[in-house]
Amino acid sequence: MSSETVNKFTEENIKLKKIRDEVSKVVVGLDYLVERLLISMLCSGHVLIEGIPGLAKTLTISTLAQAMNVDFSRIQFTPDLLPGDLIGTLVYNQQSGEFTPHKGPVFANMVLADEINRSPAKVQSALLEAMQERQVTIGTETYKLDQPFLVMATQNPIEQEGTYPLPEAQLDRFIFKIVVGYPSMEEEHEVMKRMSVSTPKLEVENVINAEDILAMRKTLDTVHTTEEIEKYILRLVDATRNPQNYKLEELKKYISHGVSPRASIFLIKAARAHALINGRDYVTPHDVKSIALDVLRHRISITYKAEAEDKTHESIIQTILESVEVSA
Which H, E and C letters describe 116-182, residue by residue? Predict the structure, then answer.
């Protein structure tokens, strides 16, 4: 690697660390979530975040957007939300007698889709075009979305009444599904101290901008992977489809269908980003294993038998990770 590239890696690692430091001024105990959001930003991938209300999911995303100095919008998904409320609509101008486009909140660099599963399929499908094609159609005109464009969607796992489960096709568009749990007692104590004052100090500096993010994505392409790592990823993916080929016959009855080819693509991208964030220009098996659970958990479908025997997506994926060898 040239000295110029080494300097670029060092410079960008400093910026990434600075972003995490700025977010930690406001958010306590969600370092894992912040790291995953940064990886998704580097990979140009969308993220689904699952957790009960009150765990600072929204605060983390908005604070991260502020640190990265990008346009941010928040959309509260409700049962009466219409596609036009999301992407925009045509507005009639009485003076000119023409329809002019009024762009919706999806026209931002970072979009928070809060409680995404509370809106019906027609709204979710409108978001799907934006997520996959990075464009929006209003009337007969198609508008490209500014880059970077990231959707950070949240959903509540414990409240199912009045919700609309995301279809498999939309779930597959998310690079990660991240499960956020309760903070530790020490972390919650710190949150309590910070937020119990009448005017908590929550100031965050702008560390980078949209151009810096696009430059980081180019640097990500220079992170080296070996054929051994690539084949290891392919074996992990294949093990979700054909577990019997990896001496995992017991999983066959628990998996209704394995992951899609997007899993392979996102695994290698996210592994590169994990290496970059950790200051390396090469991918190791540890990088793959570190991000595998978040990449795979929403892509693998389990059977009723698995649910009856208390087998979870996580436990099945963990079994695969422990059984599939790095080297063939």
Answer: HHHCCHHHHHHHHHHHHHCEEEECCEEEECCCCCEEEEEECCCCCCCCCCCCHHHHCCEEEEEECCC
Listed in sequence order, the DSSP H helices in the chain are 3-24, 31-43, 57-67, 83-87, 121-133, 168-171, 185-195, 210-220, 227-241, 261-277, 285-296, 304-308, 313-323
Domain ranges of the chain: 3-196+207-216, 223-323
pLDDT one-digit tens code per residue, 215-237:
999 989 889 999 999 999 999 99
CA distance 100 to 92: 6
Three-class SS state of 48: strand
109: helix, strand or coil: coil
- For domain 3-196+207-216, the CATH superfamily is P-loop containing nucleotide triphosphate hydrolases (3.40.50.300)
| CA distances in angstroms from 176 to 47, 53, 187, 262, 319, listed in the order given | 5, 19, 24, 11, 19
CA-wise closest residue to 89 among 141, 124, 125, 31: 141
Q: Please state the rounded mean pLDDT for residues 250-270.
A: 94
- Contact at 8 Å (CB) between 153 and 175? no
- Phi/psi of residue 143, each to 5°? -120, 130
Structure tokens at 195: 């937020």
Name the fold adopted by 223-323.
Helicase, Ruva Protein; domain 3 (1.10.8)
Q: 92: helix, coil or strand?
A: strand
The single-letter code of the amino acid at 149 is F
What is the mean predicted confidence (pLDDT) over 126-143? 86
One-letter amino acid of 206 = N
Of 65, 56, 13, give the one whose Cα is nearest residue 37: 65
What would the pLDDT profile of 163-172 be if each residue is shown by its tens digit?
A: 788 888 888 9
Tell me if residue 292 falls in helix, strand or coil: helix
pTM of the model: 0.90
Q: Which two tokens stand for residue 325?
A: 């060898």
The answer to whether residues 303 and 254 touch, using CB atoms and an 8 Å cutoff, is: yes
